[in-house]
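ok new one. same drill as before - structure tokens go in, u give me an amino acid for every spot. 334 of them this time. try not to just spam alanines like last time pls lmao
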């Protein structure tokens, strides 16, 4: 449904997207994942012709991207893209009309979607009167109101509580049943793992993982075990970490994802833990999580990479400020 071939985009001599190849299958729920600064949003903006790639080709349905084809795309941007002084109903009607839906046709759809997202009583309210979470739901409705074939969701759960996150996930499941092509663009790898069937992980503008989630996990193999204790404490974690068969472990809340050494056996680990008098509530063999695969391929967690990106961004900003405020030598001489 969507194909990128050798797509590249640089800013200030630095590659934000470095020769990216992607094939997003029709009817798939595709996760475009990675930390902030990985190139996700830049990739989406090139697909939507907001940015022009320096090189490469982008196709939708096997054809070059045109205005008509983009009318069949729904886009939820990461940034707020609403007119705050407009009434909710009029705002949604306006967005639908930009995609070719007449107000007479969009009116019943707007009421239907507002009711489903528990916003029916806000149809005449001004957008600026809504909370950030409500505004996010309004943007989500605007993205799908014209019944697009492709739906691109950039950080869709931003500002939403757990209940409303689940509401959006349920809607995405419904859209998938209708064979819509859905692209999730997010740094929340665990959310994508529970929602998507295909995944591409970007790091520093390059693709490090791409494929069906089941195939990606199978490819990265290894032996992984989930461990949890009846009474969680640091001593228990330390005991697991020091077990002879353990190569590494990663904490998920009050559970451990343990990677065993080559040749290591889950039975060996279980026997070791039992000799330490640990009371286990969970011990099961599992596939590696996408986050664990990300760490294996990139060498850092998404959070660590995001922190590195933020630090480099602050450095670049400071350099710009210094350059802008540095007096010219000729002026000083005068």
């Amino acid at each position: 449904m969507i194909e990128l071939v050798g797509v590249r985009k640089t800013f200030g001599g630095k590659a934000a997207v470095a020769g990216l190849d992607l094939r997003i299958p029709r009817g798939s729920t595709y996760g475009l994942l990675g930390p902030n600064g990985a190139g996700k949003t830049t990739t989406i903006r090139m697909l939507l012709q907001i940015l022009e790639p320096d090189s490469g080709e982008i196709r939708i349905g096997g054809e070059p991207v045109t205005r008509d084809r983009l009318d069949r795309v729904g886009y939820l941007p990461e940034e707020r893209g609403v007119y705050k002084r407009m009434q909710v109903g009029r705002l949604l009607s306006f967005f639908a009309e930009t995609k070719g839906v007449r107000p007479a046709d969009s009116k019943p759809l707007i009421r239907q979607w507002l009711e489903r997202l528990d916003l029916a009583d806000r149809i005449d309210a001004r957008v600026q009167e809504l909370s950030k979470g409500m505004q996010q739901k309004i943007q989500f409705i605007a993205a799908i109101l014209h019944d697009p074939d492709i739906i691109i969701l950039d950080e869709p759960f931003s500002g939403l509580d757990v209940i409303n996150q689940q509401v959006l996930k349920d809607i995405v499941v419904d859209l998938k049943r209708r064979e819509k092509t859905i692209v999730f663009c997010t740094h929340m790898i665990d959310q994508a793992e529970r929602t998507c069937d295909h995944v591409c992980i970007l790091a520093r503008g390059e693709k490090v993982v791409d494929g069906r989630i089941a195939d990606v996990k199978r490819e990265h193999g290894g032996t992984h075990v989930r461990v949890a204790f009846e009474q969680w404490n640091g001593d228990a974690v330390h005991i697991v970490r020091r077990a002879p068969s353990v190569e590494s472990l990663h904490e998920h809340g009050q559970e451990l994802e343990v990677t065993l050494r080559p040749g290591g056996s889950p039975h060996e680990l279980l026997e070791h833990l039992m000799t330490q008098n640990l009371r286990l509530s969970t011990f099961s063999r599992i596939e590696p999580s996408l986050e664990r695969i990300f760490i294996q391929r990139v060498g850092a967690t998404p959070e660590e990479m995001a922190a590195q990106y933020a630090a480099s961004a602050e450095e670049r900003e400071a350099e710009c400020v210094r350059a802008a405020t540095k007096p010219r030598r000729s002026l000083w001489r005068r």
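Confidence is low (pLDDT under 50) at residues 311-321, 328-334. and btw The first strand starts at residue 2 and ends at 11.
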